[in-house]
Specification:
By secondary structure, this protein is α/β, with parallel strands linked by helices. The chain has helices spanning about 40-60, 65-80, 80-95, 95-115, 155-170, 180-195, 210-220, 230-240, 265-280, 295-310, 330-345, 380-385, 400-410, 425-430, 465-470, and strands spanning about 10, 15, 20-25, 35-40, 125, 135-140, 145-150, 170-175, 200-205, 220-230, 245-250, 255-260, 290-295, 350, 370-375, 390-395, 415-420, 435-440, 460, 475-480. The structure holds NADP nicotinamide-adenine-dinucleotide phosphate. NADP nicotinamide-adenine-dinucleotide phosphate (NAP) binds next to helix 7 and helix 8.
């Protein structure tokens, strides 16, 4: 396979799309074409599902330690190829190379961790109601999983789905985002090199997600849809999956509150806000979207945060020293501009940034200056909707009750952050926040051993930890009459 021209990975073979069409993948920092990939349709998706179904019996019946060995091999190969994977990730997504390396390695850890967990898919023996009967509970893989991933973490969202699926004994058809399909195809190359049986993992790239999605939803061989992306598409897929009662895991949008109390270590809070807000140019589902600072420390916090944000260096992710890359595309850019202009119109003040980056280094990409706003009110779009860009609104609050009410006043419920040194407050506020994850004096929230996921309209199910494995397993209740 040449570097710039990829094919679909179906049943252990590299194929063109049945319709012969291809599409271009471009670098959001430069507009240059990085590679072309096949434009799969329903027919290709069906072939991939059938390949996954064909591989299921063999894969699911392998002893756990054998499946684990394959998974560790994939992990080792990803780690060995981290530089190539990270570079391609930066070229297709735009994030700084150091972040791309971190994503590839963090994503690989899911394979390592779930390889271990493969051995711990335990059943149960339950006391029965009679002497003659035994009750056993088996845990079995759900079957073929159709996985759909977004562009903001092109590598780790893939491994975060594949790893628990493989550990449980499931086989997978993966549809990566059309803007960033290359990381997934490189992982497929590695899966092939690691010797996984044909059909265990299949990858179909497409610019017609609706056609492939419809095949995933309507094909009876698919028993689970695992989706990461927007709440809107997640709801559509969950409704579609209901027609055949397919299992679903939904990792959807977020609108994270980032709360700084007056007793916080302000420097730590500033550092946390920079990481949480500006990582991946603010295009993460868990990034701080609403910064609430207690009145008495608001000015000091804002002053230090402005200083820290002005030090961020915007540029091409492949260049040394870049801390913030471009936005993924024009549509993302327009949304950010609209949120900032709506806030300005309604009285917000720009503390820093608030404009498109211009000049020869920026003109061919989608670069927006890291931006802080204050004098923000709860009716602004930026406080109601996910911005998905490098813009942070800063608001003040008086007391715990008020900030909890405002933080929970959203349909999203993915991640929340609090900065405080008071133990009682930590417990009270974390318990009251209606979110699937709460970080206390911390700004990063994705490790293989913990259950990542949201409540409310941020999703159902968890990825990571033993909880993430449960989502790929069914219970089977066996009632055995001994002298029957
Ligand atoms: P998106 O538009 O929902 O796309 C996500 C994936 O769904 C892409 O692969 C996309 O394909 C596919 N898709 C779109 N329409 C589809 C359809 N009708 N049927 C089947 N698949 C379809 O989301 P996005 O803008 O790429 O990603 C950003 C969103 O993801 C944000 O809301 C973010 O918060 C969320 N996210 C959540 C998590 C989490 O763990 N909770 C993690 C990361 C991101 P195309 O690329 O071809 O459009």
């Amino acid at each position: 396979m040449s570097a710039g021209s990829f094919r679909l990975y179906i049943g252990g073979e590299w194929r063109d799309a049945a319709g012969g069409q291809r599409f271009e993948v471009t670098n959001p920092a430069t507009g240059e074409v990085v590679a072309t990939v096949p434009d799969a349709g329903a027919e290709d998706a069906r072939a991939a599902i059938e390949a996954a179904h064909g591989a299921f019996a063999g894969w699911s019946s392998l002893p756990a330690h054998v499946r684990a060995r394959y998974m560790r091999k994939v992990y080792d190969l990803i780690v060995r190829n981290v530089e190539r994977l990270a570079r391609v990730l930066t070229e297709e997504n735009g994030k700084p190379l150091a972040e791309a390396r971190g994503e590839v390695l963090n994503g690989a850890e899911y394979l390592n961790w779930y390889a271990e967990e493969t051995r711990r898919v335990y059943g149960e023996v339950i006391p029965s109601s009679s002497r003659r009967t035994r009750i056993w509970v088996l845990r079995q893989p759900v079957g073929v999983v159709a996985a759909i991933t977004p562009w903001n973490f092109p590598s780790s969202m893939v491994t975060r789905k594949i790893a628990p699926a493989l550990a449980a004994g499931c086989t997978v058809v993966l549809k990566p985002a059309e803007q960033t399909p290359l990381s997934a195809l490189l992982i497929a190359e590695i899966i092939q090199e690691a010797g996984l049986p044909p059909g265990v993992v299949n990858v179909v790239t497409t610019r017609d997600p609706a056609a492939v999605g419809r095949e995933f939803l309507s094909n009876q061989l698919v028993r689970k849809i695992s989706f990461t992306g927007s709440t809107e598409v997640g709801k559509y897929l969950a409704q579609g999956a209901a027609a055949q009662m397919k299992r679903v895991s939904m990792e959807l949008g977020g609108h994270a509150p980032f709360i700084v109390f007056e007793d916080a270590d302000l420097d730590a809070a500033v550092q946390g806000a920079v990481i949480s807000k500006f990582r991946n140019a603010g295009q993460t589902c868990i990034c701080a979207n609403r910064i609430y600072v207690q009145e008495s420390v608001a000015d000091a916090f804002a002053e230090r945060l402005v200083e820290a944000v002005r030090r961020l260096r915007v540029g091409n992710g492949l260049e040394d020293g870049t801390s913030v890359g471009p936005l993924i595309d024009e549509a993302a850019f327009i949304k950010v501009e609209e949120h900032v202009s709506d806030a300005r119109r309604r009285g917000a003040r720009v503390l820093t940034g608030g404009h498109r980056m211009s000049g020869p280094a920026f003109d061919r990409g989608f670069f927006y200056a890291p931006t802080l706003l204050d004098q923000v009110s709860d009716d602004m779009r930026i406080v109601r909707e996910e911005t998905f860009g490098p813009v942070a609104p800063i608001m003040t609050f008086r007391n715990e009750d008020e900030v909890i009410r405002r933080a929970n006043d959203t349909n999203y419920g993915l991640a929340a952050y609090i900065f405080t040194r008071n133990l009682g407050r930590t417990v009270r506020v974390s318990e009251a926040l209606e979110y699937g994850m709460v970080a206390v004096n911390d700004s990063l929230l994705a490790v293989p051993q913990a259950p990542f996921g949201g409540i409310k309209e941020s999703g159902v199910g968890r990825e990571g930890g033993r909880h993430g494995l449960d989502d790929y397993l069914e219970y089977k209740y066996l009632s055995v009459v001994l002298d029957g």
